[in-house]
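agent> step 3/5: call structure_predict on target 'Fe/B12 periplasmic-binding domain-containing protein' (Candidatus Methanomassiliicoccus intestinalis).
agent> reason: downstream docking stage needs a structural representation; sequence fetched in step 2, passing through unchanged.
tool.input:
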Amino acid sequence: MKNMKTVTIIAAVILIIAAIGIGVGVSLGDDDTDGKIVLTDSNGETVTLDSTCSRLVVYSKYIAEALIMMGATDLVVGTTSTVLKDTNYSQYYQNATDIGTSTTDGLDVVLTLNADAIIVQNTTDNTALKATGIPVIELGASKMTEVVNDITSLGILTGRTSEAKRIVDWYSEKLKIMDSFNGVSPKFALESYSSTKLTFMAPTSTPGVTLNEVKGKNIFEDSKTSYVYPEGSTLIELNPDIILVVTYNANWSEEKLAPYLNSVYERSGWENISAIQNEKVYMVSNDIIGGIRSVIGGLFMISLMDPENYGDISVSELVDEYNQLGNTSFNNQMVYS
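tool.output (status=ok):
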């Protein structure tokens, strides 16, 4: 990859997913076409590269986690401050250069890393990165609808197809449980941890997609945007049965979780909301709401929707199983109530 670094978008889609939907494993197939590798990005576009990559710059948190699970962090020469400060990830990326938090802040650093490719979210403005001439590949593995394709493509990109297949197989096994669920959903409110204003997430957000996949009902299902900023009175009117507060790793500590949870219960006028009355407010780590571990979050949602049949689902046990899969030691306490 140190010589010619070109990305060619071609019309034919050659990575074939073996079944409709995301609840089935993917065949990784032959990644060699005339000496090149071919993969499919998050946008469904086919990308051709001269060879597998040995020097990657990674902007996507969930791709960074996938590379840990694949034992491929040695390929990462640069990643974001968010990844490097994450207590789950930092030990695996001690040799990676900090490239900042956005695709423009650390651009000057990226240019010094002699990268074979840059991996970014497809929701990011990647104009400046593409202008560098370094192949920019949009893989996020963030939403449940992206994970199977993006992890499969990551395996092809890095030459770790068997490692990627192992992850996809585990993920697909959990998806089958979710696909078979036909319970009636209570009304969910998906709140985003915020110290400034009430923020909730609609069906097109990453947590919203996870809720959709388990056939859950989002109180903001008619929103045209991913985030909603309602007045407190709106929640009183919509009366959710369950409130999930999606919380980022930086705030995942007793010192921050406990006060925030208490503040939800103490909000003015909310005492008659079903979720408050029945003490069904849960702080949930975003680590199990997006990415590969989103299936764990989805199964947790099912356990809340149908506790009689799925109440024995244990988030901590599922994370332990995931840790065994990747020989990792991620925190298994992902729900706080």
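agent> step 4/5: record observation. The first helix runs from residue 61 to 69.
agent> proceeding.
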